[in-house]
Amino acid sequence: MTNHFGDVVAHSKAMLVIGANSAAANPIGMKHFLQAKDRNNAQLIVVDPVFTKTAAKADHYLRIRTGTDVAFVYGLLHIIFANGWEDKDFIESRVYGMDEIKAEAKKWTPEVTADVTGIPASQIIQVATLLAKSKPMTVVWALGITQHSTGTSNTRILPILQLVLGNMGKKGGGCNIIRGHDNVQGSTDMCCLADSLPGYYGLAKGAWEYFAKSWGVDFKWLEDRFAAPEWMNAKGFSLAKWWQGVLQEEQTYSSSPIRALWVQGNGITSMSQTAKIQEALDKLDLLVIAEPFVNEAAVITSKKDNVYILPVATQFETEGSVTATNRSSQWRTKVVDPLYESKTDHDVMFEFAKKFGFYEQYTRAMTMAVKDRELAVVKNDFSWPDDACSEIGRTLKTIGLGGWTPDRLRKHQENWHMFDPLSLEGMGPMKGEYYGLPWPSWDAEHPGSPILYDTETPVNLGGMGFRNRFGLEHEGVSQLAADAVTVKGSNVKGGYPEITKENIEQVLGIQLTAAEKEKMGANWKVDHSGIIQEKCRKAGVAPYGNARARTIVWTFPDPIPLHREPLHSSRPDLVQKYPTYEDQKNNFRVDVKFISEQQAQEWVKDFPTMLVTLRVVNLSGAGMLERTSKYLSHITPEMFANIHPDLALQYGLRDGDMMWLHAPQGTKIKVKAQYSKTVTPDRIALPYNFAGVMQGVDMSENYPEGTRPYAIGESSNTITNYGFDIITQIPEFNAGLCRIEKA
Amino acid sequence: MSNEQARMKFFCDNDRCIECFGCTVACAEAHELPVGISRRKVITLFEGIEGKEYSTSISCMHCTDAPCERVCPVDCFYVREDGIVLHDKTKCIGCGYCLYACPFGAPQFPRDGAFGTKGAMDKCTMCAGGPEETNSPEERKLYGHNRIAEGKVPICAAVCATNALLVGDAEEVSAIYRKRVSTRGKGA
Predict the structure, then answer these.
(1) pTM here?
(2) Which pLDDT belongs to residue B70?
């Protein structure tokens, strides 16, 4: 999130909610949109393939065909550019590459857009006008945007819309991307991912060297942990396709097949291709599950031996910080000690590290601190969680966690009542700080940054330009912000590069002492000494630079976002015009099919109904926690699919009849047909939050005694179609096809 | 606040209710209700119809002139000074007259038992317990948690994610809603 929920209430005049159903997935977030409607007369525009509970509160509801978000936004941009409604000053001074976007938008007339998206041209014109004329306007999205084979393009085109309208870095504007689970932002920032070290540092050698130093271990020791040095810089298997590492059906690139799986805090039964996950689980040598509730990975497998379930404590049995969707940190206090034999997550990992023989290295950084401008071991033992928090704060400079000391975060927790819920500003003794120190909070004096890229606010009070991340120039064009964009109160006029040891004297116009030069790291991201940040503070400069936002990513297959039809498209005529990508070699150690899958056959002939997956409000993720509550289970006691009566009756299905749903990959699920007018007759919608039944087979007997949830059922993800994003490899959960058969 | 005697009321702002079921689940958890006893229900009307669909949360409305109290043949109902309508489960014969009289379908009856007989009626107490000694184990067993006696807001409204469900002195409730309506479009 560039802004935050309170900011929407306080300032937004319009809200474009696309691919997000906050009423079901984030009711507390939804409150803020309703408050903005009440207080600001803010128009709520909801774009979704299904008439959700969020759509029910909309002023304008646009029923989009699945997988056509890029086309829709270009349709908006076409109208905005045609009428000259773009923010020319903003684009001129803070954006790179808008001409290419403009050229692409030109093709997307309301008529073309209507044909592709299924949204009437008149509605596209109406909403484009509304969005351009209601400022500030905020864009809100969630997994309906990201979970596509074109997910990366989707997540790029929406910020581009905000750049065009000049809504970035403004109160009431920005891109508010909603996280659906507790601490998802925090685990993303820590990069619980296969392609990056914590803090988005990536896997390059320099990043490993920085972390080796930060952890107080030899680089060589780290390197020796890998089968061969080259694996250190290679992405691992992703959560989306790890099972191919076991099954090896598609080409994989790894030192060995995957033989053991350790699942901690992840509902992998809610991932797509659940039938493949089941096969892979069956084939593993070892499966270890560490969760407070039984992870149904242990249930959908018929594996009898070498499955271990470790009881892990809940959030109430441990202490520490979590990161909210708006980048604020929230400290949590332990309510009770871990119950029975369960252990906290970190204790489980410490015990493993001891057995594996690297506990000392694993925990060393928690005994370290910066002393005399150098990182050194300063004590013999650590105290949890304070020293872990300090380690994170002093290490993750890329996102500016320097201000997140345990003392400050505790103080914020203890003084909730002293913060304004709409502006996040502190009052009384907390004056001058924003609640939870939303990152970047560059250093221990920094108040946090409630709104990203706000140049009207001094850096030391939470302002900044765009980050200079992609070099100084591209094709002869400067990537730095224009001279007109001076961040308020900055000593440096106009744009400036990210600060390095090499350029700091010139950019800031200062002279370093010999001692400072000696202790300073190579650049702001790896400077343990803290000197770069100190000098930046004095100059009112953000260490990451003041640059242009780019619309062109020259390293991506689509340098600017382009509409590409889903792999399993309901419109074969459009597949020819907007084909998907070439098949992909080795992303996250595995090949991925694109065009070969899309053109293998005219899928819609055999699978004529669009498949939309969704979340029900009473179950989150794989539902393994909530389905153990009898009251939550009572709301949706069994798996179902929402189906329009007109479609159901084509198959002789009465309300409540059972039906089989078949997927292109040959899988099927048996679910109850639930008549609903939230869907049109061309599509059905079904939740993914169930597990325990696989392709008609009840797996109940695999639950350890006394752990069977009140509700079990088929998961929609057993029939979620094949498809993965070309960059992130997130599965295509949201655009696919299926065939209905009366059971 | 008025000097008049407080009269406790619920109000659900249908522009705010998103059918999240938070109120019903919290109610069931707080009072440890059997599954199927819905002291509070969330209902959605015109589902899927653009421009018409809305959701609302409903329970005993603690009527000023409560029809349940009028029709009860054993006179098990009583109205507290603050307007909360309660009943005595030890007197109730489970006849179901109150269910027919109630315009909101608030009275609930156990579904198990011999031949599906009704058993003692159960309904929303506005988290105010019953005639047994306040906060006693007997009160808790028969009527659930007495939050009002502990100075707490009824659990359903306390957990409402969107502040749709309001509860309290009728004048306070209407003041909150009046402010919400009259400041519409006036800014935060």
Answers:
(1) 0.96
(2) 96
pLDDT (0 to 100) of residue B113: 67
Q: Is the pLDDT of residue B2 over 60?
A: no
pLDDT band at A269 (very low <50, low <70, confident <90, very high): confident
pLDDT digits (tens, 9 = 90+) for A323-340: 999 999 999 999 999 999
User: What's the Cα-to-Cα distance from A743 to each of A103, A613, A660, A670, A684, rounded to whole Å?
Assistant: 50, 21, 6, 7, 16
Residues β-bridged to residue A550: A96
Instruction: Indicate the residue of A23, A39, A679 with minimum beta-carbon distance to B188.
Output: A39
Could you give the CA distance from residue A726 to residue A153 in angstroms, rounded to a whole number? 10
B18 contacts chain A (CB < 8 A)? yes
The DSSP code sequence of A539-555 is: HT--TT-BB-EES--TT
CA distance B137 to A563: 64
Percent of chain A with pLDDT over 90: 98
Cβ distance of B180 and A38 shorter than 8 Å: yes
pLDDT at B126 over 60: yes
Say yes or no to pLDDT of B116 above 80: no
B1 pLDDT exceeds 60?
Answer: no
Contacts by A407-413 with C-beta closer than 8 Å and gap 24+? A408/A433, A408/A437, A408/A444, A409/A321, A409/A329, A409/A330, A409/A331, A409/A436, A409/A437, A410/A331, A412/A329, A412/A330, A412/A331, A412/A436, A412/A437, A413/A330, A413/A331, A413/A332, A413/A333
For residues A729-736, give the mean pLDDT. Answer: 95
Q: Does the CB of B54 have a partner CB in chain A at under 8 Å?
A: yes
> What is the per-residue pLDDT for B117?
67
The 8-class DSSP code of residue A55 comes to G
* Helical (H) or strand (E) element with A184: helix A184-189
- Would the CB atoms of B161 and A31 count as touching at under 8 Å? yes
pLDDT tens string A235-244? 999 999 999 9
Q: Looking at residue A530, what is its pLDDT?
A: 96
DSSP code, position A280: H
Contact A257, A246 (CB under 8 A): yes
Residue A510's Cβ-side half-sphere holds a number of Cα atoms within 13 Å equal to 22
**Partners of residue A368 on adjacent β-strands:** A377
Please confirm whether the linkage preceding A385 is cis (ω < 30° from 0): yes
CA-CA-CA-CA dihedral for A303, A308, A311, A315, to nearest 10:
-80
Residue A660 region by backbone torsions, left for phi larger than 0, else alpha for psi between -120 and 50, else beta = beta
Closest by Cβ to B50, choosing from A28, A31, A51: A51
- Cross-strand partners of A303: none
Where do the H-state alpha helices sit in B58-169? 67-71, 97-101, 137-143, 155-159
Within 10 angstroms of residue A716's Cβ, the number of other Cβ atoms is 30
- What's the CA dihedral at A290, A295, A301, A302 to 10 degrees? 80
Chain B contacts of A680, Cβ < 8 Å?
none
Report CB contact under 8 Å: A27, B24: no
Asked whether the beta carbons of B140 and B15 are under 8 A apart, the reply is no
Contact between residue A132 and residue A143 where contact means Cβ atoms under 8 Å apart: no
If you measure CA to CA, which chain A residue comes closest to B46? A677
- Helix runs in A226-370, H state only: 242-247, 274-283, 297-300, 345-356, 359-363
Q: Which of B55, B180, B188 sits opposite A40 (nearest CB)?
A: B188
Amino acid identity for residue A186 in this structure? G
